[in-house]
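User: Sequence recovery, please. Input:
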């Protein structure tokens, strides 16, 4: 029987076989390929993952969800897992001499002596006799060539022979008629051949006639097991569909994440561009304001310079007048003093008529002031740059 269709629940082989099964197809590895994330799958399974997204250059690992880049050669471009290939070869060597029905039905490792050419069973001497008795048209021959052995375990490039419905029937007959069925714990002389559905446990003939008498229904254990296998296969198919749906959803979410990252960079570039434009405008406004300040200050300083010139000339005139008065008082003639006094009286009268406070007010009220307009600068710049708005349509 093909290894991929055997339950392989033997204590000695169970752990090894489970480690040699692909987590995608749940069968023995076929040409195992090692991904960069250290997970291994059949080459065909990897190719199916790649083919789901023909326009993309990567896919998600079904186990760790890491993004895996697709080689130029597709799934074939990934390296083969030599460790798993070595383990497959080691298991092939172990399995090529084991009777399939004994291992599957009775959890025993018995040396196989024959092989049925029609249904591809490897059989020990007892199972061979039972098999030929029930299927007289089958031909079982002695194992004498490795050509048969290679069909029992899929290698790096081989394909396992599928288990036919006829072979499943043969397997059930082996369970029913072989000499090594599991013994009943309460009645060791009897084999567990029935299943009490009321109690949910396998029973023997004596159990059926004693402690389980009257329980209904009591079914053939092989039939119950076969039905369970059919249900498990159906459930596995549904789980595989759910896995495909979830993998597709994960791929879409990862694609959405990459779109967000790309659009985020685009928006970031646009924000920086608008901010730089605003900075340039602010710099231009500052330059214009400084030029305006320089112009207005120049006008005011020109007015002050004009007033300074007038004040300086007047000061020189007054100082000269004071010097002349001093000289006349000290050494002038009487007539000079009388004339100068008359002139002084006229000068002072004119000066009193001239309002000197106008100049003082001019000095006290001159200067520059910056008018601040009531504007919300933060709001203005926020509107100028823009607001980031998410677009979300994720189911």
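Assistant: Recovered sequence (395 residues):
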């Amino acid at each position: 029987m093909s290894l991929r269709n055997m339950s392989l629940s033997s204590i000695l082989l169970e752990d090894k076989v489970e480690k040699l099964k692909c987590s995608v197809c749940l069968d023995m590895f076929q040409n195992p390929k090692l991904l960069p994330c250290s997970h291994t799958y059949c080459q065909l399974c990897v190719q199916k993952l790649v083919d789901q997204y023909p326009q993309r250059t990567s896919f998600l690992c079904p186990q760790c969800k890491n993004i895996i880049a697709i080689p130029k050669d597709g799934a074939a471009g990934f390296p083969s897992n030599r460790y798993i290939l070595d383990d497959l070869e080691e298991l092939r060597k172990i399995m090529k001499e084991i009777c399939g029905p004994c291992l599957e039905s009775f959890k025993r490792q018995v040396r196989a002596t024959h092989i049925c050419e029609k249904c591809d069973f490897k059989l020990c001497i007892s199972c061979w006799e039972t098999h030929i008795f029930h299927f007289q048209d089958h031909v079982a021959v002695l194992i004498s060539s490795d050509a048969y052995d290679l069909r029992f375990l899929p290698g790096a490039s081989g394909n396992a022979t599928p288990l036919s419905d006829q072979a499943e029937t043969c397997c059930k007959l082996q369970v029913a008629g072989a000499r090594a069925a599991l013994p009943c714990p309460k009645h060791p002389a009897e084999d567990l051949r029935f299943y009490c559905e009321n109690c949910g446990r396998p029973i023997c003939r004596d159990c059926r006639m004693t402690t389980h008498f009257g329980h209904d229904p009591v079914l053939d254990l092989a039939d119950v097991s076969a039905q369970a296998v059919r249900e498990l296969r159906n459930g596995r198919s549904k789980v595989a569909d759910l896995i495909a749906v979830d993998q597709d959803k994960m791929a879409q979410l990862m694609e959405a994440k990459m779109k967000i990252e790309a659009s985020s960079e685009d928006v970031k570039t646009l924000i920086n561009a608008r901010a730089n434009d605003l900075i340039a405008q602010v710099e231009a406004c500052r330059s214009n304001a400084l030029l305006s300040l320089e112009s207005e200050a120049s006008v005011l300083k020109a007015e002050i310079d004009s007033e300074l010139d007038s004040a300086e000339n007047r000061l020189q005139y007054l100082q000269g007048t004071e010097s002349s008065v001093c000289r006349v008082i000290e050494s002038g003639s009487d007539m000079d003093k009388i004339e100068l006094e008359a002139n002084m009286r006229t000068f002072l009268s004119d000066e009193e008529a001239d309002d000197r406070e106008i100049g003082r007010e001019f000095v006290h009220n001159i200067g520059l002031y910056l008018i601040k307009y009531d504007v919300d600068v933060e709001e203005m710049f926020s509107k100028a740059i823009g607001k980031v708005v998410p677009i979300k349509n994720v189911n």
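Residues 1-12, 144-180 have pLDDT under 50 and may be disordered.
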